[in-house]
Design goal:
Elements (H helix, E strand, L loop, with lengths): L2 E5 L5 E5 H8 L5 E3 L6 H4 L13 E4 L3 H14 L3 E4 L15 E4 L6 E4 L4 E5 L4 H9 L3 E2 L10 H6 L7 H4 L6 E7 L5 E5 L4 H7 L8 E8 L1 E2 L4 E4 L1 E4 L3 H12 L6 E9 L14 E9 L6 H5 L10 E2 L2 E3 L1 H6 L10 E9 L4 H12 L7 E6 L21 E9 L5 H15 L18 H9 L3 H11 L15
Parallel strand pairs: 4-6, 5-6
Antiparallel strand pairs: 1-2, 3-4, 7-8, 8-12, 9-13, 10-11, 10-12, 14-17, 14-19, 15-17, 15-18, 16-17, 16-21, 20-22, 21-22
Length: 475
């Protein structure tokens, strides 16, 4: 074979001579993979098992210089590209079908400056990599809730997690981003350097280049964190969800809660007659003083008579890994999101109906209680716009057999549609489905910030080399 077929940014397929690839390898320290190479099939996989794409080339980078080289190569040959960072990818946008994948998965180092309370994480790092280094110094970055999530995708689209009511979104604790732009330069974007780009990167996704490193502000974290986990039968779901809603209105910002319609797991702490049955679980992370933990979490555990209460104290690192086993690598996932203006009886009736009709017992409907520090940031202060909405619902369809895909995806889309009358619009881009209805998603995610984002896109990526998850076109 003397050439490979590869997709261009114009949507056409061209033949790329292997001699050209050999010349490129002289500028590239990483590994270049194509069909038939030993590591190719493993490298093209992401966490979501529904994604089954075959890129023409995968460029596994070892550092920023590799990223610069591959961006220059892609621009010179007008190739369609995608960026794979941590690989915890729901939508599949990280893998370009028949295109070029810029793979940062081997760039996972994390360094912590405990005196300055700052961490620097490479673009391919996972939350677990970051947590491991920061907790050694009693510190944490406000990030997501599953340790195998990549820092890049989480951060560039906002970053919700257990500390967001106390310390804000991940982007509210972002100090700088090192990024390779479309002209092959490595820039540092911060409040002082390229501040317009820094504004756009805090919510604007992968539209502006390849983020090779992130710097985060860290916060002291208690040695022991109380994690409330009362489990209630679905028959009292409305009472529990309403009670949680009312309590969270004035709850301390050290408390972050998810209300989850799910299935009772088959474990010894839960009565056997409830195993696998639909339930409501309150997941409450309290990161304040230990002596106040009982008073703060107790009301969540007495909203009705729970069928079980798995509340316990644990370290931050263990808390971050607590949900990992529910989201294993390679299972099938389809996640959508919607912001809600209210959480009343009509909304809860819809969610309870769909909780009973889930095609898979592994599927959940998660209610994120927003507010706190994240809501005090002006919507125009960063590209992330939806800061004043009280509730976000994550529709997480999870299943184990590929043959069940159509039923589970249809269920999630139907629930998303059924909740739209209770929403004034908006969506969280880390739960994007397969990025359907892109124009509506752009407006919903960015609102009044979209015009400025298009202007910054025109400045840093005028030829639209980087499509991102949701393409912001130069304007």
């Amino acid at each position: 074979m003397s050439e490979i077929q590869i997709l261009t940014r114009r949507g056409t397929v061209v033949n790329l001579q292997l001699e050209i690839l050999d010349n490129f390898k002289n500028q590239f320290r990483g590994t270049l993979l194509k069909h038939g190479d030993e590591e190719y099939d493993q490298a093209r996989k992401v966490w979501n098992g529904t994604i089954d794409k075959r890129p023409a080339l995968i460029a596994r980078c070892r550092g920023a210089a590799d990223v610069m080289a591959v961006v220059n190569f892609a621009r010179e040959h007008q190739l369609a590209i995608s960026i794979r960072s941590g690989g915890h990818n729901v939508s599949g946008a990280a893998i370009s079908e028949q295109g070029l994948v810029i793979d940062l998965s081997h760039m996972r180092s994390v360094q912590v400056n405990p005196r300055e309370r700052v961490a620097r994480a490479e673009g391919g790092a996972l939350l677990g990599d970051l947590d491991h280094e920061t907790t050694a110094f009693g510190l944490a970055a406000p990030v997501g809730v599953v340790s195998e999530t990549g820092v890049a995708g989480l951060t560039l689209h906002g970053g919700t997690g257990w500390l967001m009511r106390k310390h804000g979104l991940t982007i509210d604790n972002l100090l700088a981003v090192e990024i390779v732009t479309s002209d092959g330069r490595l820039l540092r974007a911060s409040a002082d350097e390229h501040p317009d780009l820094f504004w756009a990167l805090r919510g604007g996704g992968g539209n502006f280049g390849v983020a090779t490193a992130f710097e985060y502000r860290l916060h002291p974290i208690p040695e022991s964190i109380t994690f409330a986990m009362p489990i209630y039968s679905l028959e009292v779901a409305a009472q529990v969800i309403a009670g949680c809603r009312d309590y969270m209105h004035d709850a301390p910002e050290e408390l972050m809660v998810l209300g989850t319609y799910w299935s009772a797991p088959p474990i010894a702490n839960i009565p056997e007659e409830h195993h696998g049955k639909p339930v409501v679980i309150l997941l409450g992370c309290y990161s304040g003083p230990a002596e106040n933990a009982e008073n703060v979490t107790g009301p969540l555990r007495s909203l009705a008579e729970p069928i079980a209460d798995l509340t316990s104290a644990m370290s931050w690192k263990d808390l971050q890994r607590l949900l990992d086993e529910d989201y294993p690598n390679g299972k099938y996932y389809y996640w959508k999101s919607i912001y809600l203006d209210r959480l009343d009886e009509a909304v809860m009736a819809v969610m309870e109906e769909y909780a009973r009709s889930r095609p898979s017992p592994e599927t959940s409907i998660d209610i994120w209680h927003m507010g706190g520090a994240m809501s005090r940031v002006e919507p125009t202060a960063t590209a992330f716009f939806n800061r004043r909405i009280p509730f976000m619902v994550a529709i997480e369809a999870n299943w184990s057999e590929r043959a069940d895909s159509d039923a589970n995806i249809a269920w999630a889309r139907a629930l998303h549609k059924a909740l739209q009358p209770f929403s004034s619009g908006g969506n969280y881009l880390n739960f994007p489905g397969y990025v359907e209805e892109q124009d509506a998603m752009l407006r919903g995610a960015y609102g009044d910030n979209l015009t400025r984002l298009k202007q910054i896109k025109a400045k840093y990526d005028p030829d639209n080399l980087f499509p991102g998850l949701l393409n912001i076109k130069p304007g």
